[in-house]
């Protein structure tokens, strides 16, 4: 699917708090680099990884699931395989019925899950990287 630059710019301008599902403590992993970049750009990044739950990553507490995150997030950014997206989308919609944005990283997509989210009014961007888009558009 094609997304207009205007849509992507609008999403990246209005979101402030991003839950990163699949966040890694390993600096060589893309999820770590993108999370650090997003923080550097002023976003609050909340890492989600059950294997790291309770630890600290980039100055934030790591949560084991989306359901454990206190408060609201503006975007869920998925760094997991496409097969995991459906469950993550369902968890996100259950936790935040008014979630504004779900974003899946490069190579990650689940069109059926995206449609379920869009039917609930969520903006969904798949198979893109916010770090790349920020560098390209801002």
Outline:
The protein is α/β, with parallel strands linked by helices.
Your description of this structure?
The chain has about 140 residues and is an alpha/beta fold. It has a single domain, classed as NAD(P)-binding Rossmann-like Domain (Rossmann fold), CATH 3.40.50.720. Helices cover about 40% and strands about 20% of the residues. It is built from 5 helices and 7 strands. The protein has helices at about 5-15, 30-40, 80-95, 110-120, 130-135, and strands spanning about 15-20, 45-50, 55, 60, 75-80, 100-105, 125. It starts with a helix and ends with a helix. The mean pLDDT is about 100.
Succession of helices and strands: HEHEEEEHEHEH
Structural class: alpha/beta
User: What is the domain total for the residues?
Assistant: 1
Helix content: 25-40%
The number of strands is 7
Query: What is the 3D shape?
Result: globular
- Major sheet characteristics: 5 strands, parallel
Keywords:
single chain, 138 residues, alpha/beta, Rossmann fold, 5-stranded parallel sheet, two-stranded antiparallel sheet, 5 helices, 38% helix, globular, CoA-bd, NAD(P)-bd_dom_sf, CoA-binding protein
Q: What is the topological layout?
A:
Layout: H1 5-14, E1 17-21, H2 30-40, E2 44-48, E3 56-57, E4 60-61, E5 75-78, H3 82-95, E6 101-104, H4 111-119, E7 123-125, H5 130-137
Parallel strand pairs: 1-2, 1-5, 5-6, 6-7
Antiparallel strand pairs: 3-4
